[in-house]
Design a protein that fits this description.
The chain is mostly helical. The protein has 13 helices and no strands. Helix 7 runs antiparallel to helix 13. The chain is globular and about 65 Å long.
């Protein structure tokens, strides 16, 4: 497992600490013609080689270097000014997936990895987590549509899709707290949101807005709570 930690450390050093902003801008402007792209990939390969402390085993660092170059090129080619955040997340996930598979493969644990990915535990957890993201957002949107239509100004005063992502994060946190048997943290999370929302509700003096927020919050938390409890039950059976 220390191999994985070393590879992740190499990624953190190469992507965040040893990459100047000027390099990032140069890569975005020149893309494949930027020498910084190739030096950046080379740095990742060298860091992996040094941290693994086994110069004779050069294949793993070489694959890390080549995969990093390919993934970064794909991101630079397809990202736009509006999709930078999305591609940043996708880029980091792809790098980590490569590191995970390579690290486990070199440890001869690839069989254990695939067994876990096909296990009932992983399928149950993955289904629950995926359900709590976009599907629940769509369901809540349909359920509270009659009330959201009655508050047109709320959408105009909010950041685009901010409410959806806040809801997703809330549900995932509730799910995590339930699965780790920290029920008190759910109450703390609900209280924290109430404190942040109190100012908005106090200033608006809108009963409709207050009721709309309460309905949406309680539905979101309730669904996450039920999914968490159901997941716990399925994992025990």
């Amino acid at each position: 497992m220390i191999v994985l930690v070393k590879l992740i450390l190499a990624h953190i050093l190469g992507d965040f600490l040893l990459q100047p902003n000027s390099w990032v801008k140069a890569k975005e402007e020149k893309k494949a013609l930027a020498w910084q792209l190739y030096v950046h990939a080379l740095i990742h390969g060298l860091l992996s080689l040094l941290l693994l402390f086994d110069i004779s085993d050069w294949k793993l660092p070489a694959i890390i270097m080549l995969s990093h170059l390919i993934i970064d090129y794909i991101k630079l080619k397809f990202q736009t000014e509006k999709s930078k955040i999305t591609w940043f997340v996708v880029d980091q996930i792809m790098h980590l997936v490569v590191i995970l598979f390579l690290g486990l493969y070199w440890l001869n644990k690839e069989k254990e990895l695939f067994e876990f990915l096909l296990s009932d535990t992983f399928i149950i957890l993955a289904t629950a987590v995926l359900f709590l993201t976009q599907p629940v957002s769509i369901i809540l949107g349909v359920l509270i549509k009659p009330w959201s239509d009655a508050i047109p100004n709320e959408k105009e005063q909010s950041l685009k899709n901010a409410g959806k992502y806040i809801g997703i994060l809330e549900r995932l946190l509730v799910f995590l707290f339930i699965c780790t048997h920290h029920f008190e943290a759910v109450g703390f999370l609900l209280a924290t949101k109430s404190v942040f929302r109190f100012g908005d509700l106090k200033e608006s003096k809108e009963r409709k807005l207050t009721e709309y927020i309460l309905i949406g919050t309680l539905l979101s938390f309730g669904i996450a709570l039920l999914v968490g409890l159901l997941t716990q039950y399925l994992l025990k059976t």
